[in-house]
């Protein structure tokens, strides 16, 4: 049997080309996209304003299919986490964080991650494979339908599977901060980003879609041209020596190159700053010396610093900085005029916080073994 074409994987260009191949006009692609992404249709017989023969054609060769949900948890603070089965014993996680003025969905881009950062539980699991565009968008499609259904049910006092209506903004922001390094799955991630922005799909503004990267320099440049969305860069250390020990990719793309790429990105970015994420690791990157070094970096680029309390997991061998230390560190930065925020940890009770997304990864590399060995190597800066 031929494999069905999963419509969740087609951005506007791909869908328009496909619809043309079937002999239909471009506006049919827009209608179809609205049914799939805005109205959350999962069956073709729901698409009542499409001609019957077109529906029959879609029925014969297409599907609208998301990865299966293995578990779904809701935290006491309203944070939700889904674990999706992506086949062959791999599972990825997606998190929804509701706040007063927005709802942020944190999406995964890979099963595992090959960057192998010392402080990241995904990194400790090794790498299996890239997710497809349909699997990336499937997380958004499903999360939206699920949240709509429970809100609809709460509103109506029933357990009806309320359909998503057009123009709702329950998910107002998407961040590629789940499992995986999005810029190492560039070809599948970019069409997914385009769908998030597409007015006939999710219609989010570029400022509300964020790619977070550990610093894959050539792809930062490509993203600037292909789909400039908000950029967050995982900095985590203010000098190359320390950063290379925390994020091995830094040996390939050291800080000077990374900052230069960020500066080039700003010419295209929807925001006039880059967000630098900085995990606070006790006695590793959180001293006054580090804060002063970080201030020097902020002089080279328009940026904001987001301090993230480290979320510990046993295999890391690392410890979270105390709240007092985080406050002191933030104060040094702010006194120097650096815009600094401290990330609130959400969804702690369901292990949904940053860096806790573990899913399940059948490692096809030797990364998880190597990480086991590395955890006993102390992190030391040569230059003090
Ligand atoms: N690969 C990308 C995006 C996924 S990680 C990246 O590294 O940017 C998303 C964010 O979670 C990154 O800033 C990452 O550094 C952070 N993170 C990873 N492990 C963490 C941990 N244990 N505690 C807190 N944040 C963590
Ligand atoms: Fe990969 Fe990001 Fe985790 Fe590093 S922090 S291992 S790049 S997911």
TrEMBL record:
Tell me one GO biological process term: rRNA base methylation
Active-site residues, record numbering mapped to chain: 93, 354
Residues at which S-adenosyl-L-methionine binds: 180-181, 212, 234-236, 311
**Which Pfam families does the UniProt entry name for this protein?**
Radical_SAM, RlmN_N
**PROSITE patterns xref list:** RADICAL_SAM (PS51918)
GO cellular component assignments? cytoplasm
> Where would I find the Radical SAM core domain in this sequence?
99-349
Describe cofactor binding as the record notes it: Binds 1 [4Fe-4S] cluster. The cluster is coordinated with 3 cysteines and an exchangeable S-adenosyl-L-methionine.
Q: What is its EC number?
A: 2.1.1.192
Cofactor dependence is on:
[4Fe-4S] cluster
The terms under GO molecular function for this entry are: 4 iron, 4 sulfur cluster binding; metal ion binding; rRNA (adenine(2503)-C2-)-methyltransferase activity; rRNA binding; tRNA (adenine(37)-C2)-methyltransferase activity; tRNA binding
* Compartments in which it is found: Cytoplasm
Family listed: Belongs to the radical SAM superfamily. RlmN family.
Q: What else is known?
A: Reaction proceeds by a ping-pong mechanism involving intermediate methylation of a conserved cysteine residue.
Protein function? Specifically methylates position 2 of adenine 2503 in 23S rRNA and position 2 of adenine 37 in tRNAs. m2A2503 modification seems to play a crucial role in the proofreading step occurring at the peptidyl transferase center and thus would serve to optimize ribosomal fidelity.
This chain's protein is named: Dual-specificity RNA methyltransferase RlmN
């Amino acid at each position: 049997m031929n494999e069905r074409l999963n419509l969740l994987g087609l951005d506007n260009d791909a869908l328009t080309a496909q619809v043309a191949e079937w002999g239909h006009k471009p506006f049919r692609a827009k209608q179809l996209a609205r049914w799939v992404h805005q109205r959350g249709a999962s069956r073709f017989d729901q698409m009542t304003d499409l001609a019957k023969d077109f529906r029959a054609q879609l029925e014969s060769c297409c599907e609208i299919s998301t990865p299966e949900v293995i578990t779904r948890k809701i935290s006491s603070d309203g944070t939700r986490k889904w674990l999706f089965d992506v086949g062959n014993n791999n599972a990825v996680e997606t998190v929804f964080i509701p706040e007063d003025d927005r709802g942020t969905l944190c999406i995964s881009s890979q099963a595992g991650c090959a960057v192998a950062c010392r402080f990241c539980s995904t990194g400790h699991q090794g790498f299996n494979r890239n997710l497809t565009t349909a699997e990336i968008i499937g997380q958004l499609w499903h999360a939206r339908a699920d949240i709509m259904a429970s809100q609809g049910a709460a509103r109506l006092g029933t357990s009806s599977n309320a359909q998503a209506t057009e123009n709702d903004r329950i998910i107002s922001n998407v961040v590629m901060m789940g499992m995986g390094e999005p810029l190492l799955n560039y070809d599948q991630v970019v069409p997914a980003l385009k769908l998030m922005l597409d007015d006939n799909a999710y219609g989010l503004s570029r400022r509300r879609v964020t790619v977070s990267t550990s610093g894959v320099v050539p792809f930062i440049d490509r993203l600037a041209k292909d789909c400039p969305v908000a950029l967050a860069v995982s900095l985590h250390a203010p000098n190359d020596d320390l950063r290379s020990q925390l994020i091995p990719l830094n040996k390939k793309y050291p800080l000077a190159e990374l900052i230069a790429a960020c500066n080039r990105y700003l010419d295209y970015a929807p925001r006039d700053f880059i967000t630098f994420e900085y995990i606070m690791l006790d006695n590793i990157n959180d001293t006054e010396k580090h804060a002063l070094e970080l201030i020097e970096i902020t002089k080279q680029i328009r940026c904001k610093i987001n301090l993230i309390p480290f979320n510990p997991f046993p295999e890391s061998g690392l410890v979270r900085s105390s709240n007092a230390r985080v406050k002191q560190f933030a104060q040094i930065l702010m006194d120097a005029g650096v815009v600094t925020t401290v990330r609130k940890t959400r969804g702690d009770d369901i292990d949904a916080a940053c860096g806790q997304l573990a899913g399940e990864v059948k490692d096809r590399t030797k990364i998880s073994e190597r990480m086991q060995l590395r955890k006993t190597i102390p992190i030391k800066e040569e230059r003090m």
